Amino acid sequence: MSFEFSEPILIVGIGGAGSKLAKQATKSLNAHCLIVSNDQKDLSSDCPSIHVSTKPIINPTVSLIRGATTQSESEIMAEVSKYSTVILFANLAGKSGSAMAPIISQLSKEANKNVFSFAIMPFKYEKDRIFNSGIALKRLSANSHCTIVVDNDGLLQSNPNIVLDDCYEITNSAMLHVVDSLKQSSISKETQLLTTGRTEIDLETSLKDSMKMLYENMPPNSVKHSILYVIGGNNASVGMLNSIADISSSVLNEQGAQIEMSTISSEESRVVMLSTVQGETKFDKYDPLGMIPKENQLDWDDPECSINCNFDLYQLE
Predict the structure, then answer these.
(1) Could you tell me the pTM of the whole model?
(2) What span, in angstroms and rounded, lies between the C-alpha atoms of 12 and 173?
(3) What one-character DSSP code corresponds to residue 316?
């Protein structure tokens, strides 16, 4: 089944990266924006915001931020309840995103909203963030009707000489291109992987980069369906478009390759690929206990969090 967007739409930016993406995406969908963060610098005067306070701790853990977020649940729910569709942007590589995304998505689900989420995963060398991102993604996916996963590490692996700022710019731009097409595209209610290539190369090489990034995350036979957004495709030759179709059909299932021309006004020229996946991906291995079936888990309903209860407990010698 395809995800159905019904108005009014609320776009929620979680943390630093999420807030920046949400503000830009709001313009594309003519939606309302909400910023939720524990960092005052992420909040904006031109967009409604909820500040999750972790004082007096200045370097809070993921569990502490999550615990503080539960104290703002009524405020978050009051905003979410006004809308039919909730779109979440969360950088799960950051503490704010991995802490708050499970809570906010759960509140949206409990309010019977259509929940659509974008999740950005960490680089492989960010080993201290991988576990929390895997846990957060699992919960975010369970609470969302559709989750689009962006793996910055996949782009870095396929382009090892790329600098970090360029990597962020490429993947962020790819997400915004997908947002621009949401009202015209038919996206299934499943987990999707978003892949793309560099902008300074031709469309054919960009497609190959996208596929290489895709198969960094999963075995080739796990792709059920793919949509190719050809950015700047209206300026490409028919021969180039035919070449892209031939390459995608030879690698993907003949019925699984779908070409969509993007009408987004852009000076860049590249391919953005959205693939529906089945089976295990590398993100499932981020949680060493992820192989345990859900029915055998004791703590699934309540994500781990810590709350300062101010108990006067004396140390016992």
Answers:
(1) 0.87
(2) 18
(3) P
Residue 117: inside a domain, yes or no? yes
On whether the CB atoms of residues 275 and 214 are closer than 8 A, the answer is yes
Assign residue 19 the CATH number of its domain.
3.40.50.1440
Per residue, what are the HEC states of 8-75? CEEEEEEHHHHHHHHHHHHHHHCCEEEEEECCHHHCCCCCCEEECCCCCCCCCCHHHHHHHHHCCHHH
Cis peptide before 8 (omega within 30 of 0): yes
195 bridge partner residues: 273
Whether the CB-CB separation of 88 and 19 falls below 8 Å is answered with no
Q: Are 148 and 175 in contact (CB under 8 A)?
A: yes
User: Which residues 6+ apart lie within 8 Å of 119 measured at CB?
Assistant: 90, 92, 101, 136, 137, 140, 141, 147, 148, 149, 150
The dihedral through the CA atoms of 114, 120, 124, 129 has a sign that is: negative
What are the tens digits of pLDDT across the range 148-170? 999 888 888 877 888 888 888 88
Number of domains in the chain: 1
Kindly report which listed range (24-38, 158-172, 197-211) carries the lowest average pLDDT score.
Answer: 197-211
Domain carrying residue 99: 9-291
Residue 1 in domain: no
Q: Is residue 312 part of a domain?
A: no
Q: In this structure, is residue 316 part of a structural domain?
A: no
Task: Give residue-wise pLDDT tens across range 228-282.
Answer: 788 776 677 677 777 777 777 777 665 455 555 554 556 677 888 888 877 777 8
